[in-house]
Structure of 2-oxoglutarate dehydrogenase E1 component:
Amino acid sequence: MQDGAMQAWLESSHLAGGNIGYVEELFELYLDDPSAVGDEWRELFDSMPAVGKDVKHSEIRDQFREMAKNKLKMAGSQGGNSETSEKQVKVLQLINAYRFRGHQHANLDPLGLWKQDEVPDLSLDHHALSKDDYDTEFNVGSLAIGKDSAKLGDIHSALEKIYCGSIGAEYMHITSTEEKRWIQQRVESQLGQPEFSKEVRLRLLKELTAADGLEKYLGSKYPGAKRFSLEGGDSLVSMMKALIHRGGETGAKEVVVGMAHRGRLNVLINVLGKHPQELFNEFAGKASIGEKSGDVKYHMGFSSDFKTEGGDVHLALAFNPSHLEIVNPVVMGSVRARMERRGCTDGSQALPITLHGDAAIAGQGVMQETFNLSQTRAFSVGGSIRIVVNNQVGFTTSKREDARSTQYCTDIAKMVQAPIFHVNADDPEAVLFVSQLAIDYRNTFKRDVVIDLVCYRRHGHNEADEPNATQPLMYQKIKKHPVTRELYAKRLIEANLIDEKSVKQMVQDYRDALDKGDCVVDEWQPMKAHSVDWSPFIDNEWDVDYDSKMTVTELEDLGRKISEIPEGFKLNSRVNKVYEERRKMAEGERKMDWGMAETLAYASLVKHGHRIRMVGQDSGRGTFFHRHAVLHNQKDAETYLPLKHVAENQADIDIYDSVLSEEAVMAFEYGYATAEPNTLTIWEAQFGDFANGAQVVIDQFLSSGEQKWGRLCGLTLLLPHGYEGQGPEHSSARLERFLQLSADHNWSVCTPTTPAQVYNMLRRQQIRPVRRPLIVMTPKSLLRHPDAVSNMEELAEGVFHNVIGEIDKQDTKKVKRVVFCGGKVYYDLRKARREQELNEVAIVRVEQLYPFPHQEMAKVLEDYQHVKDFVWCQEEPQNQGAWYCSQHHFREAIPDGAKLNYAGRNASASPAVGYASVHKEQQEKLVNDALTIK
């Protein structure tokens, strides 16, 4: 409002000057929530000096005095009546109190056991109001009930219905006024009683009948079998179908679902359309898994197509283990890959839905990490729908003070200002309304939204449990409590929408459908071919043919391209030196270092149409200042990625510095890689031992996902590893753990020692038609080691050598000892061997420890069949590194009658010593032990 207009408005007002307190209270209300006051007040307060910007309180108060002096009058001021004007403010405060805290008095618990503390703010007395004021009419401010003013009795009744019924809306923690107004308009306009057609309400009853019917059927047919029943949370089936329908109507083409065990079988049958007979076969132990190890039925995923008014939607239920919340970032990664494949930047075509237990969402740290990813550049998916199946007990822990340190299990979502809608699972229509509201909010604001489905579990943690042992009062109540289907059927019968005979027939029809074993989901559609084709990678083994050769001329041209910097782009002096050296490497004036060769690998791939996605906490620059893929202009902080400018029509490349997270980020990248075989997907650890923080992802997904679930994944892990005297942390990437998990050709584990090797290893990972993880022990000191260099011809060869034999000229017949090694220690061994002129010792590098390259090793050892003395040398302690997990491969490779010995550090609980002097002493000893023939 301009000054002249404001003055005219002030002069036209009629409020007595003594009402400065009224204005101040309105201002306090405005500070809490700008949408709580009327438009004119908001416009006025918006025009005042911004609070928190060094504005004296006296200046604001002077403006209040000016308003009062000019006899300010607002709608609802009741002609200057001071008492009524003060009550007007109290009414607006009451409205605001319900918006903030009404959820604490909402009717959310189907069992009626959940008793929340009384909230004084929600009483009339607290606001100096009473029922005596019920007939007085007040301005409703921004309360969206379809009129500007109403009697206090009607306002109070409306607030109770809106905020204290079956839905408890928590959204006032959101700072965006636009988002709060949007939610208020949608929630308040319904007066807590959304209206649906007869057709929709009967469909809800049918869905509840299916949810209840499946559980009863399984309970009678397979008594005592674990199924993690949905009973008590039956409305989840209606919620899921409502979300998918609404998503499809608004443009979604794919929905990816992540959920743990509770209700999973029910969702599989009654939402995704899995044939019941297939499930029955699994219960009977008849399912075939071929050569795979398989998994229990409530871990398995599923895919189908689902018919909506907006077209068919492809559904994918993610496989996941018992580590509950770990599947959530996997789902997000899968959705991101699907978005990018479709050219969707806002998430409108791909929808993530994740289901959580109330104990898990509050208790599992990966949830904080996943929420933290939600709005970042590298990991955003346009918002997620997060459903908490809140059965109010985690295994046997039920008391709130034992389960969490917050009032609600969903309070963690407030860290990203996600709205939270608590809803009573025994009110299916409220569940439907909240589901539609959640989709619309997510699509409008591209942010996460949480639905807290407050329910119960009719049995124990699983069907073999005895829940009365730990929750006696709750389970006495549950035993007497009717199922949701019965409650809703009674409600529809009373509304004359259906009769009892039809209700019974609905139950029988569903049971008959289960007996037939065919699909019971009306919306199920035969699955069509989708935009990603995995067929080129299925059933291929490591030795499948591929061609990775390139000409030296082409590599030199790429080297020049990746070394070009835009005119006027000012580099940091140290970075500029790196690029000056790279230009010399491209011209053949210098041999290539690690950073140049690695960057050339990426350039060669994107030039020929292979997308690349790299994520890590320092991936743009590289933790050890070696990559410098993302350049920063020292003048204006603008960034430039040379790899995006190597050729016309090249594939895209994204390199992101990620949030400070290992578990959620690695899981996200796993999910991305399982949905996108045509992208080289890389997660780089800042230091290799940081992979510890993502051990669940490594154990449950990367190492075993193909064996358990048949899920192919080409994710590459770059894990800096090497003993440089830096202490127990940041020395070891825990190579032994990866080798211990190595079996069934599940992944490859490599320790490359030259730039040419890393170049050809990365190209092999993407060009070879095999999609399995690649685990790389990348170096630190070798990044700038004068001997760790390669020439263009070595890169152009296009071959990653799993084994590299002796490179120094030797008379092989005189060799008495062969030392096997891998990684940085090779250069220490070679230096000492040369200095001591130990020509009777040959050094063989094992560049790929798994799958062990028996054929290549046999070829390298052809000239050493006379040798009886073989040694494995490693930097790591004896109980770590490759020794325990790989010695059987070494023993198989050496000639008959030869002996294999160990040279390395003694076994240790710690990865490395903490003192540089002791480290040096140990390093010298292990090198001498390896080279000294006894």
